[in-house]
Amino acid sequence: MIPRPKLSRPLSASYELTAGAAVSGPADLIGAVRTAMPGLDLLPGDDGAIDLRLDPSLGDEAYRLTTGSRGVEIAAGGRAGAFYAAQSLRQLLPDEAFRYGAATSWNVPGVRIEDAPRFPWRGLHLDVARHFFPKREVTRLIDLMALHKLNRLHLHLADDQGWRVESRAYPLLHEMSSHRPRSAVHPYGQPEAFDGIPHGGYYTLDDLAEIAAYARDRAVTVVPEIDVPGHASAILAAYPSLGATGEPHDVLDRWGISPAILSPLPPTVEFLTTIFDELLGALGETPYVHIGGDEVVLDQWAASPEIDAYRESLGLATVNDLQAWFLRRLADALAERGSRAVVWDEAFVSGGLRPDTVVMPWRGQGVARRAAAAGHDVVATSVFPLYFDYAEAASPDEPLAIGETITVADVAAFDPAPDDWAPQERERVIGVQAQLWTERVPDPRTLDYRMWPRACALADIAWGAQDDFAGRLEAHLGRLDALGVEYRPPAGPHPWQRRRPHLPGVIRLDEVMDRIEAMTHDPESTRPSI
């Protein structure tokens, strides 16, 4: 089973579960179980084959599952616990149970499971700014996350290469900034080459409302990201007056970082606050909003007399202090709306964050530990082994990736809160999340290949298990086959998965990690790290 339960004991008796079986218990728990097991057509009833009850002594995501001759009994701490119990029950069934119409009954082996997650934040990040993935792909990813008890979908909605959200207040964002005339296709460090194919798309506010509702029904929280003040070419292509210089910009057609940066002046804060209101209005209750703060080139702020005068009026000594002030002002605005700000680790290193800001330390566990020691909640997001845009082997058989190598075993061996950290530091690690940046992920088939089965390993460490993963994964792949997931086979890619061959040896992860870890000790290390 993936993720592995905390406690699982076999029982002697089994039970025959049939399609259309009744589920009894509180209505919200019944709804969770029916959603988790869509192929069984389970029906509400007074005396069910699956009997549910609420146990307030359990955490919201915790559950107990017992199967035997009398049927299936589930005690859950909340709706999420019932949902996860049903996902575990689903994994007790044969692989064919993950196909629609495959059978009308299944034998459920006798078992007692007591389970709860190690971390409350078990996340996947999807960059829809570099390559857009339509709503159907996002909801499919949510389904796969739910199967693996992953519960945070971080959507990277804005970057230099595209803006992906409808704005009724600032319509040029989706009219102009949601598309580009072409995309780069060359390997990193090689001569530029482009595909000549227009690329774009955006989610309407109604789309976002639907995605959020679909996610909530599957115990997943959407975490939207509007990355500022850098990574701003797409915003400034529509509204150049919000930039530090006022000069015109284009949506970038190449990868990498642009020096384009938003102004920190009040009109920008007003603009972003309006965008937040639109996002939160569409998404509904949104506990977290990511505001970026990474890879910012502050030269244009330093060169602007108007911005420099504004900095002095605030009593700030440097432009780094001004960025910290800017991010804190946005975090304050989000707090007023009931959301916590999330940032990448550059914002922590620069200082000045609100104490309740969540830090994602992508540049390694060293800065993660320092953020935790400083009292910030931390979600482990280190490039190694949690950046799934890196290849799984240093081989031209792999599809094109930025560098290598991050394997399934690397992910499975990662500990987000190591034992040698102080207890108060480990307590600040609220979770772990893998990132899929999509510069070299042009389509859903490549997304599947990059994400799975490495995300299976992520689910395992996020829930808490780290033993016998390889053996459990071998059995789990049959479920992914039944669901039609085009994952990377353990032995290497299928012939049809070898398109746009990878160029090995261009970016080595050991060199990357040494360099970016060193940069985290410089409070002015806001410039691009890779």
From TrEMBL:
Q: Which domain of life is it from?
A: Bacteria
Please tell me whether the keyword RNA-binding is annotated for this protein: no
A Pfam family annotated for this chain is Glyco_hydro_20b
| Keyword set, alphabetical order | Glycosidase, Hydrolase
Annotated InterPro entries = Beta_hexosaminidase_sua/sub, Glyco_hydro_20_cat, HEX_bac_N
What is the organism lineage in this UniProt record? Answer: Bacteria, Bacillati, Actinomycetota, Actinomycetes, Streptosporangiales
Record has Transmembrane helix as a keyword: no
Where would I find the Glycoside hydrolase family 20 catalytic domain in this sequence?
Answer: 119-464
Protein's name in the database: beta-N-acetylhexosaminidase
The source organism is Nonomuraea harbinensis
Write down the chemical reaction(s) this protein catalyses.
Answer: Hydrolysis of terminal non-reducing N-acetyl-D-hexosamine residues in N-acetyl-beta-D-hexosaminides
Tell me which residues make up the Beta-hexosaminidase bacterial type N-terminal domain.
8-116
- Stated EC number for the protein is 3.2.1.52
